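WARN no homologs supplied; continuing
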Amino acid sequence: MISKKRFLLLALLVIIVTSLVAMREVHSEEEPVVSYLGPAKYYANYSSACIIRVDDFVADPAKLTTIDFNMGKRTVSFQNFQMELINYLVVHHPEARLVFGIITGDASGENNTQLWSLYSELVHKYGWEAASHTRYHLLPPRTADDIAGSIRDIEGNISNYRVNTYIPPYGKVDGNELNMLRKLGIKIVMSDKPLQLKVPSNWYDMHITIKIDGKHPWFMKFLEVTHYLNNRIGGVTVIYTHATSFDWKSPGQMDSYFNETLSNIEDGRTWITVPSELHKYSVESKMLKVVQLNETTFEVSLKKPVDFQPIPVTLKFLVDGSVKAVYFNGTSLPELDSFGYIPEVGYKQIGNSLLISVIPNGVLQILSGGND
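OK structure emitted
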């Protein structure tokens, strides 16, 4: 027979356990248990990144009047083919953004309104990146007029745009030129040297991974292998084409190679981005500081100011239960059905994994809808 004292102790124990269970149930209906895992290496927690680079866009409408496949100068033909390529990509691969190097020449301005309008549309509507490819496409040493003039041409003709990337003609750049580029605010210099397989450690010497080059039958196989590898090591694939990399016979041939290339890359695991975006994300994610204020609230900031307009950085969390809403600085963030390529603010839950993309700085709060 249970003594009265033991009975009271057992009753008290039952009350305490019941209260704890009830408190946990109430707690789980309001707030999930949240663990911060760190920033994703790439936006939206993509496995790898890919940059597609096209050189020798020429800001000269005189070279765009007709398409003649029998032209003697490949660069002129190529320039016409590029107009066809733009049309093809924005229709069939509208999210696959490219970085294009512009040779601005010395006739930029009013006479080139239509062409600059196209470049502006690519930048602002489709998220492509316009890089400087100098004014005159000369070998080094280059003058300030050649280097700084090209940057002024682009920024003067594409409103609300800042040039971040420089592509030196012939892949050659000297020390004086690099010093000038730094003073001009250039963040990335793209060379034509192999072999880029990871996030650049030196942004003033970004290499390429592979050329789109129909001369070599192993191009697509090499792309498949490097892309497979980069998806597993978290690497970067830089794909490059140029007027001299292949004697394109028709716009359709170029379209076909790009289509096959993108079919290999667009696998749902690869972030197709542009150099300045990858640079910003890399810098921000390394400087990120996240402090947990309570179980579901976090302060997100950068350890020091950056000299560019920040972009959304993806934060990874582990949550116990379903998420009802996410607030940043008191504003509800949109729940995203899926992540695209252009970084945007929002969140997505996949099982117990929660991805949240925000622009630092602010306070992040995660609310739960209870356990499923």
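Confidence is low (pLDDT under 50) at residues 20-29, 65-74.
OK
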